[in-house]
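Researcher: I'm comparing several assemblies side by side, and this is the next one on my list. It has 455 residues spread over two chains. Same procedure as the others: predict the full complex and return the structure.
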Amino acid sequence: MVNKIVADCDAAVADLKDGMTIMVGGFGDPGAPNQLLDAVRRRGIRDLVIIANGAGSEDIGLGGMMKDGLVRKLICSFPNYPQAWAFRERYLKGEVELELVPQGTLAERIRAGGAGLGGFYTPTAVGTDLAQGKEVRTINGRQYVFETALYADVALIKAAKGDRLGNLRYRYAMRNFNPLMASAAALVIAEVDEVVPVGSLPPDDVHTPGIFVDRVVLYQA
Amino acid sequence: MSLTREGIAYRVAQDLPEGAYVNLGIGIPSLVGRFLPADKEIFLHSENGLLGFRSADHDERDPHLVNANKDPVVLLPGAAVFDHAWSFTMIRGGHLTHTVLGALEVAANGDLANWRVSAQQVPGVGGAMDLAAGVRNVWVAMTHVTPQGRPKIVERCHFPLTAPRCVKRIYTDLAVIDVTPEGLVLREVCPGMTPQAVQELTGAPLTVASDCRTMTLPQEFEGLALVAEGGPAA
């Protein structure tokens, strides 16, 4: 019998290693796998490359990993808000590298990685500093910049419901990057608010099919 | 007289048509949702995968419902929820009809600079470049000049560009200006302002439209306009 349910967050991330590239879902608080991130922080693995929309908030989740200096490089769209002080302090000291990516380009680079593509041409960022050094090509009279796909060692994601087969369902704004990241990493670990029996999620309501998910762990209230 | 931040947002909202699909940026644009005409169905879009919402009152907050500004929202009947790839398919694919963005500068050719001041310590871009490059009607809502009195409508942007030649219309505390292939066209001025006074605070030439008019502000909202001695809204 297939059973992707893992006992707790520490067990779920026990084989993560220094130097890994890790995608982190969430946009603000909704959909952020904060208990998995806290477990990564407890493991204290370092030299990580993180792919996320933001840079964490306060001392929570990704923010806590930033505070502890576990991150070598951040690939993200929006790290400049007051609550991201842990990232800001390390960035200004030169202790963490930043690759800034327009938000839609970030989403599509992840989608492309999960879809087995090498990259894509986008009109976003043409004629700006963020296109510097990138191939620009004219297609049907319009300029596009080439962006490469992103693929990670691990994706840490969050959903509202999950079953032992790894089928996931989100609620409202939890979805954001999570379904994309579920397709774009070698190991996908989902934190869920509720574990439900197989068959209780109607097939039309499965947002992320279990084929993409390796481990499911229950959020501890 | 000049418009307050709310006044600029009110004026923008009056021009959104029935059936518009609209993404509102941070700052003054985020206020536009308060003034959407009640007699039109207009759908707000948020980068994080929401279409068809309004701001939440304090007693109706849901931890899983925030917009891209991280402000609490409520989904309206007919709303849809989707992931980031779909959300930016709507943006980049030209499916949204309008976006209203703040700006540091707009050039006479429609170049937009709104994502980074040169000396900023930590850069961030969010969805600004996708919106500017992808949405059919890019409108800017901003103050006409900086707090130091420097024009924000210029011949050439000094700040790093968000996208070239993307802005179609500019709403400020003093005027409504269209960006056209023939240059900037002054469509409306605030009560008490003349086209010449607007030109003096603008860093690029304005053509005054033959039907240029003085905007009218409704009585039912308070706080849309400032009296002259305070100067333009900060």
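Model: For your comparison table: Residues 229-234 of chain B have pLDDT under 50 and may be disordered.
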